[in-house]
Amino acid sequence: MDTSLPLPKYHQIYLVLREQLQEGRFDRDGVPGEHVLADQFSVARITIRKAMEMLVADGLVVRRPGLGTWPLHAGQRTGGKTPGISREKAHLTGLLENIVNMGLRTSVSVLESSVVGASDAVADALALELGAPVYKSVRVRSTQAGPLSYITTHVPQGITEINREELERKPLLMLLEEAGVELGGATQTISARLADAVVARHLDIAVGSALLAVTRLVRDVSERPVQLLQGLYRPDRYQYQLQLSRVGNIDAKVWVSEELSAQFH
Fold this sequence. Notes:
By secondary structure, the protein is α+β, with helices and mostly antiparallel strands. It has helices at 9-22, 34-41, 45-57, 92-105, 120-126, 164-167, 172-178, 197-203, and strands at residues 61-64, 68-71, 89-90, 107-117, 133-143, 146-156, 183-194, 210-220, 225-233, 238-247, 254-264.
């Protein structure tokens, strides 16, 4: 864990596990046992136990004696809230330009390319039935300075066929366009996350390090969701720039944003 963060270790672990639960990481096999998590985070089991107690109190998991710890999905919870995907619009033209620019100036390593059943969170975002087949890809992009981002994407299987060789050559949005998908708009949320053991290893950082988290839902011209992207970026190598302008009359001026660029180094 990152000992420089002003949070107790158990709280850092709680935040990491909460993020993984929201991504559907433990839907199939349940949350790993205390001894496994203790080894993963290099802490004592009592620290893991405190983090698990926080997850139980939030209504995110249920602990079943003899059966392990399992996620509680939105329909099962009596407490706690799962944040939905923000509805703040992003300009898709600028988004595509940034993605193409990034693709030309970075190298990519495809860690996973497979068909999986949609988790609760993925199915909700893509307007699919739980367990519906989706193409899942996990990629790490790097610059000359080293790894930049850890990106997980899900695309409904009925949209187009996606394979590893194509992902190694082109950005996914370009592949969707080449398959005849008419991209219409995107909704994007930017927040902060903490790196778990897997992400930390691929981005060459310490477990618990702060990351810039981007969740992007892309739709076609008929408003059908066609891609869910969840990206984790090293803040020392990636910047997201917006330009703000004031609009409206003198009594009700508001700030509106125009996406300028996603800068990396």
